[in-house]
Design brief:
With about 425 residues, this protein is of the alpha/beta class. The chain is built from 18 helices and 16 strands. Helix 5 packs across helix 13 and helix 11 packs across helix 13.
């Protein structure tokens, strides 16, 4: 562990100047760290005065390399030689700050929503708290964390490089096939996720999805293990007057938050009352319009079939738009949910992949892009003449074949829906 009193005696290289890297550099400059350099393979204008002129030499000489979470060591042989020096912004944050309670949340799906649920719950129950990490707010953008809860969304990319994180409460929401192109295999992916437990002590808590119980029998950690029971949450679920939370798609996320509420001794009534006012995140099962029996849902963040299946399983009479850049090893197992789908519409540049996955199981059209998909859906809506239905955009794939990110993809879908709803309804 980096020792706080002697922190400024160490030398650092901040490698990667995205959101998290830039926030670290600003912190180092503000707090008069004299011995640090920066590097980014693409961004050459940021922090020019601190940019190293000899990367190979700097990599050898510095004590620590604070690495951007997007950089995989599998694809960077030069960095792999210095793996022992590599840390993350999370490691530095834990080394600098001591007097706070941290909740670190990881898992394949549901991290951002669970973080927001927790933040909302704590705020409503008058706890001091802040939220940062992979959710889009770098951890070094947080101010005044002393004597408060700090909620940290941690991706497997961050955790893969991390060495010193030590959460008071560590959440492992779920574990599915994902990011194999980055980690190489499922073992590496799992090992990255489980780093949230390695430094914990006997007074800290590990909340782990019950489906992983057998996996964790083989793991030796000191913290108190809890496997949240979904049936306990379901007993109180419908006391929460909130359509977004009672839909079923958030049961797993809410189960973790409910279990946590018991650990910090918040009364059940207070938990229920606090969650009535929660609003969901954009692009995550976002019910953004209802018109003449049609419900419009933007689930653009569903970048794998596992994520999309959560939406499909909780709905009926679905016109489903899917497609994009498929993830390595992903499979669409539709048999359990096919009765919920009226018809599907494939978009993107990898049509053959999705066609093979659903052919003979559900009715589909090849639409190529969102506009064609919606045009076809509204024709089919009139043909099938169903009183109540859902237009669901849950692509089960990454966005990068047609869009810069899932946010841009979701925004485009919502705009088109509003245009075509006026035309056809």
């Amino acid at each position: 562990m980096l020792k706080t009193p002697k922190l400024k005696e160490h030398s650092f290289l901040v490698y990667g100047l995205g959101l998290s890297g830039s926030a670290v550099v600003k912190y180092l400059k503000k707090n008069n760290f004299s011995d640090f350099k920066v590097w980014d393979d693409k961004e050459k204008k940021l922090f020019r005065k601190n940019r190293t002129k000899n990367l190979k030499k700097t990599l050898k000489e510095v004590d620590y390399i604070i690495l951007s979470p997007g950089i995989s060591l599998l694809k960077n042989k030069n960095l792999r030689k210095f793996e022992k020096k590599i840390i993350t912004d999370l490691d530095l944050f834990y080394s600098i700050n001591e007097n706070f309670k941290s909740i670190v949340i990881t898992g394949t799906n549901g991290k951002s929503t669970t973080c927001k649920l927790l933040f909302h719950f704590l705020k409503k129950n008058k706890f001091k708290c802040s939220l940062g990490g992979n959710i889009g707010n770098p951890i070094f953008n947080l101010n005044k964390v002393n004597n408060s809860f700090v909620i940290i969304e941690a991706s497997s990319f961050q955790l893969s490089h991390s060495k010193f994180i030590k959460p008071d409460y560590a959440f492992f929401l779920n574990f599915k096939n994902d990011h194999l192109d980055w980690h190489g295999n499922m073992t590496n992916y799992l090992n990255a996720k489980t780093k949230i437990f390695k430094k914990q002590n006997k007074d800290q808590f590990a909340l782990i999805n019950k489906s992983l119980k057998k996996t964790f029998k083989k793991k030796k950690f000191k913290s108190k293990r809890i496997f949240p029971e979904i049936k306990r949450y379901k007993k109180i679920k419908f006391k929460i007057n909130n359509d977004y939370l009672t839909s079923g798609i958030n049961d797993e996320n809410m189960n973790f938050v409910y279990t946590f509420s018991k650990l910090i001794n918040v009364r059940e009534k207070s938990f229920i009352n606090s969650m009535q006012s929660f609003n969901g995140l954009p692009h995550r099962f976002e019910i953004f319009m209802r018109k003449k029996g049609i419900t419009f849902i933007n689930d653009s963040k569903a970048t794998s079939f596992t994520a999309a299946s959560l939406a499909i399983s909780s709905l009926k009479n679905i016109f489903w738009i899917l497609g994009g850049l498929p993830k390595k090893g992903d499979k669409i197992e539709i048999s359990k949910f096919k009765k919920n789908i009226i018809k599907s519409y494939i978009i993107g540049k990898h049509i053959n992949f999705f066609k093979k996955q659903i052919k003979g199981k559900i009715i589909y059209s090849i639409s190529k892009d969102l506009e064609n998909a919606l045009r076809q859906i509204f024709k089919d809506y009139k043909y099938y003449n169903i009183e109540k239905c859902t237009i669901l955009f849950s692509p089960a794939a990454a966005s990068f074949d047609q869009f810069d990110n899932f946010e841009m993809r979701g925004i485009k879908f919502k705009k088109l829906c509003k245009v075509y709803a006026r035309k056809f309804i």
